[in-house]
Amino acid sequence: MSRTTVAAVIEDLDLRSALQSVASEAVDVELVGVGANLAEISSVLEDPELDVVLVHTELRRSQFAAVISDLQRQRPFVGVLVIAPESDAGLLSSVMELGARGVLLQPLSLDEFQARVDAVGQWSRGLRQFSGGTSDERGQVIAVAGARGGAGVSTIATLLAHECSRAGTVCLVDADLRKGSIAYLTDVKPRRNLTDLATVASELTGRNVRDVAVDAEAGFAVISAPTDVEQADDVSATAMTQVLHQLRFQYDITIIDVGSTLESAQAVALEVADHVVLVVTPDVASVNSARQAMHSWERLSVRPSSAVTVVMNRTDRRREVQAALVERVLAHPLSVSLPDEFAQLEPGHNSGNITLVKGGSIRSGVLRLARELQLVAAPEASSRRSAGRRRERGQSAVETPMAVALFLLATVLGIQVLFAASCLVFTRHAATEGAREYAVSRSVSAGQASAEAALPGWAGANPSFSAGPGKVTVSTTIPMVLPVGGDFRMRISQSASYTAEPRP
């Protein structure tokens, strides 16, 4: 059955108290705001999913008929019920003419309240659905709970809020009422906390939320837990319901750290949340606690096991308890496993700002969790592949000609070096032959002829021969692979010594 959201315009404090008592006992009814006039519940009236507004006939500051008329003009899809000390045909006829859906008699009874509110809420939802009169959807609420203390719930909730802050407005609420640590992990110093919102929950407005929430440097808002342990009792189930209802309209995503205990406020958070994340660690005690928690939630009608996302923290292949065992014991699949890499988190923990952690396997795991819960959009694989192919094609178009040019240049240089080395060897041999002939004949022409005969035709061009005291020198031009001008042609010279033969 759908939950019916109800607001009220009541000045009488006793009637307000009675209404809150009856609404808390009603099934699938959520009292989201009470005010003395429409201005005091203006933020609640902005809720596109508001179903019913109760209007008391005994208003001193304004006429209840004017209030109903304003409601019909502002929110035509919201059903109006009139609360009256007594009913007669004239009152019923007048309120029906104004557009109200019926009358509730004082004192309020649970059965009548439940029946009338359910009927009017169903009418309101049907009318909105038929006419398409709903506005944008409200923000999502995600509750993060731990199987037992020390599972890393606060760290995961903080990192999850940081990841989601890139996709929209995010509020991180520390509902671990007796030992909250979100303020430390996000490096904020709040002056107010969740208790301040709980004390004004019946008249909560967006301004109250903005006064309590503190903007962290990481880009999301933080509502811290009570600073004194005795203040935890001030956060009742009704107050938590109204606070979360207001947060839905202030932020796109609200992430609640509910810790590992199950008090009335935490139970409400688990019940109204769109997603519940249960964090378990790879040890038998934690796994048993997780199984007991899921069983308790289901037995108390807080949360069915099928609507719980299980995350295993501090996984390690060296542990005896592995993911398969956890899934078998809990009879529930694991969505994400986070590795046991505290070294990645240690600087952030020690400095008091866990959002300073950059990258790493833990960050990647939390991002996978955000995508699993559809809080952030997953990257489009097809577009990523096509973009990669375009980059590869562009890179290939640039690199291929360069590679061919470099290969050709390296080949030419290699052949040129081979030519130079070969020419050097043959020039040395020619100098030796020329020195031998010159030593015998003492004729420069004979020595040059002998040297030229020792040079292959390709090994040198324009050889020259010169003789000096005790040695001869042969110079040749190195052959070039590519045709170049004379100024760029290189010549090499090699010398060989000789001993003059005595003449006969």
Describe the overall structure.
- It is a single chain.
- The protein is α/β, with parallel strands linked by helices and about 500 residues long.
- Helices cover about 45% and strands about 20% of the residues.
- The N and C termini lie far apart (about 135 Å).
- Mean pLDDT is about 85; it is low at about 135.
- Strand 8 and strand 9 form a beta hairpin.
Question: Which regions contain 5 or more consecutive residues with pLDDT less than 50?
Answer: 133-137
The number of helical elements comes to 17
Given helix and strand content, the structural type is alpha/beta
Q: Which oligomeric state applies? A: single chain
Arrangement of strands in the largest sheet:
8-9-7-10-6-11-12-13
Q: What's the overall average pLDDT, rounded?
A: 86
Extended strand count:
16
**Could you tell me the radius of gyration in angstroms?**
44 Å
Q: CA-to-CA gap between the ends?
A: 134 Å
Helix amount: 40-55%
**Can you summarize the main beta sheet?**
8 strands, mixed
Shape: elongated
- The fraction of residues assigned to DSSP E strands is 15-25%
List keywords for this structure.
504 residues; alpha/beta; eight-stranded mixed β-sheet; five-stranded parallel β-sheet; 17 helices
Q: Could you give the topology of this structure?
A:
Elements: E1 4-9, H1 13-25, E2 29-35, H2 42-45, E3 52-56, H3 64-74, E4 79-84, H4 89-98, E5 102-105, H5 110-131, E6 140-146, H6 153-164, E7 170-174, H7 182-185, H8 194-199, H9 206-212, E8 214-215, E9 221-223, H10 237-250, E10 253-259, H11 264-272, E11 275-280, H12 284-299, E12 308-315, H13 323-330, E13 334-339, H14 342-351, H15 360-372, H16 381-441, H17 444-454, E14 461-468, E15 471-477, E16 491-497
Parallel strand pairs: 1-2, 1-3, 3-4, 4-5, 6-10, 6-11, 7-9, 7-10, 11-12, 12-13
Antiparallel strand pairs: 8-9, 14-15, 15-16
Helix pairs in contact: 6-15, 10-11, 16-17
